[in-house]
Amino acid sequence: MAQIGLLLTLVVCVLLHNGVSSAVEEKNEEGFCSRQLNNNQNITVVAAPGPIGPKGDIGPKGPAGTPGEAGVRGAPGKLGPVGPRGERGDKGERGPAGEKGAPGTSPPAPPVVAFSVARTAGISRTSSTTVLTYNVILSNEGAAYNEGTGKFVATVGGVYFFTFTGMTTNPTNSNYYLRLMKNGGKMVGLHEANGPQPQYQSGSNSAILRLLPRDEVWIELDKSGRTLYSSGNKYLTFSGFLIHAD
């Protein structure tokens, strides 16, 4: 039935085209064949669409559209693995020297305590224990040695070094026994005796002692009948100095 209707439509459209010369023929967008007669009567005939025409040229580019609103920021991704260590860079240039700092505070200088004394006269046949005194002051830094008593009195607590000497006389059977004393206590001793052959004999001894302020140190000749020799050559000596203050 659809094919018969189409055929009738084509025949009518042809008859209208050939039969009336004063009519106006139109073809609308829907593919209808239309002819208007002189007596203002319209007859519309439906016809099949024609073949598809060639593709037209591309039209001009339209204006840019309005940018849209920014979307919602997504959640941050997970931290990736640590990459390999890069190569070591070149050594940079040396920077300028910094400003000179403020002078520091120097610690106080440690105290100097030192003495060295000598005796020019000998001692012959003592009657009792005797504290040796020394009449030549070679040095007395800190004024801790008392020439009148023959005793060293510590003005600074700390560690001290002491040394002393003795010498026998020439006659036979002479001897001496010296002791380094600290506050009345015996620290170290020195003993020599002349035998049948007369001769001068000299000896020495030393000690390191820890002292408190006002501690006393001296040299003592023991008991009676002892003999010491000395002269202007200063064979009898007594010395000491502070090693480290407390």
Automatic annotation (TrEMBL):
One of its GO terms (cellular component) is extracellular region. The keyword Amino-acid biosynthesis does not apply. Residues 85-97 have a biased composition (Basic and acidic residues). Residues 1-22 form the signal peptide. Residues 48-112 are annotated as: Disordered. It is found in: Secreted. Residues 108-246 form the C1q domain. Keywords: Secreted, Signal. PROSITE patterns: C1Q. Pfam families: C1q, Collagen. Residues 48-64 have a biased composition (Low complexity). Gene3D superfamilies: 2.60.120.40. InterPro entries: C1q_dom, Collagen, Collagen/C1q_domain, Tumour_necrosis_fac-like_dom. This is Complement C1q-like protein 3. The gene is LOC109486841.
